[in-house]
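Q: Given only this backbone (216 positions), what sequence would you predict?
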């Protein structure tokens, strides 16, 4: 384990994906807590806010080398700093939206309003009414320009919100252009090389899961 300042930083690749997901949620939640609410937080309080168990919170924080005080709990400032140094890239990540429909526009606007190291620097579409114009403050390129723009703007992550019948072809172009991370908002199963991290987000599946657990 290495250290930055007084904060121990583990090797990021060893963190389970679900732990990274929860760490991101911890940071956003802690960042929203007003300083007037205190400088420390206990694991059971953080767990309650996210519907988790205190044991799960403590396990996640131990993975990044942070332990709390029985008397005070965890320093909110130290937590935010350590999570940032663990999951962030110092210079941030350049991100592109591929598919500038209603969903793509909404995602772009949301991310640009959020305090994050994810920088949306480009959008791609086939619609001539959108190309060479800005959407939510992001310039939209013709989808044929993906290889050139990805390399020029050093884009490493893309968000896919394109129609299902073109997603596999576009994914192939993205991978060959050097993209290393994909958030897939389509329902299409994608096969990508082992050095590309793929995260699927299927809205219908998520809603059906909720429906199953609330049905009587």
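A: Predicted residues:
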């Amino acid at each position: 384990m290495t250290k930055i300042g007084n904060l121990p930083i583990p090797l990021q690749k060893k963190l389970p994906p679900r732990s990274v997901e929860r760490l991101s949620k911890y940071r956003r939640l802690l960042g929203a807590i007003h300083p007037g609410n205190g400088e420390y937080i206990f694991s059971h309080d953080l767990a309650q806010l996210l519907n988790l168990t205190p044991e799960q919170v403590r396990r996640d924080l131990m993975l990044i080398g942070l332990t709390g005080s029985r008397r005070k709990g965890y320093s909110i400032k130290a937590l935010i700093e350590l999570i940032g140094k663990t999951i962030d890239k110092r210079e941030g990540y350049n991100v592109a939206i591929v598919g500038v429909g209603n969903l793509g526009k909404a995602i772009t606007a949301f991310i640009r309003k959020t305090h994050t190291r994810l920088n949306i620097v480009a959008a791609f579409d086939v619609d001539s009414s959108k190309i060479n114009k800005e959407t939510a403050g992001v310039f939209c390129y013709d989808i044929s320009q993906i290889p050139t723009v990805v390399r020029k703007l050093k884009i490493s992550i893309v968000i896919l919100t394109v129609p299902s019948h073109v997603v596999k072809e576009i994914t192939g172009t993205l991978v060959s252009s050097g993209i290393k991370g994909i958030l897939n908002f389509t329902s299409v199963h994608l096969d990508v090389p082992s050095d590309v991290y793929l995260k699927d987000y299927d809205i219908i599946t998520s809603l059906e899961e909720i429906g199953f657990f609330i049905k009587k």
